[in-house]
Amino acid sequence: MKNNKRNYIELLAPAKDLECGIAAINYGADAVYIGGPKYGARAAVGNSFKDIEQLIKYAHKYWAKVYVTLNTILYDHELNDAGNTANELYNIGADALIIQDMAFLEMGLPPIPLFASTQTNNLSVEKIKFLQNVGFQRVILARELTLSQIKEIHNATAIDLEFFVHGALCVSYSGQCYFSHAISKRSANRGECLQACRMIYSLEDSKGKTIVKDKYLLSLKDLNLTNSLPDLIDAGISSFKIEGRLKDINYVKNVTAYFRKSLDDILNSDSSLIKGSSGKVYFNFAADINKTFNRGFTEYFVNTSKLQHNKIAAVNSPKSVGELLGKINFIDKDYFTIKTPSRLNTGDGLCYFDNEGVLNGFSINKLDGDRIYYKLCKSLSKGMDIYRNHDSELVKTLKNNKTNRKIDISISIIERDSQLLFAVIDEDNLTSSCSLPLKDFDVSENIDLSHLLEQQIKKTGNTIFNVVSVSIEIYSNYLIPVSVINNCRRNLYEASENNRNIHFQRKLFNICPNTFPFPESKLNYKSNIANKLSKQFYQRHEVQIVENGFELSSNHEGKEIMICKYCIKDELDICPIKNKAKLKTTYTEPLYIRDAKRKYQLVFDCAKCNMKIIY
Question: Could you tell me the strand order of the sheet in which 610-614 lies?
Answer without folding.
Answer: 210-215, 201-204, 591-594, 599-605, 610-614, 560-564
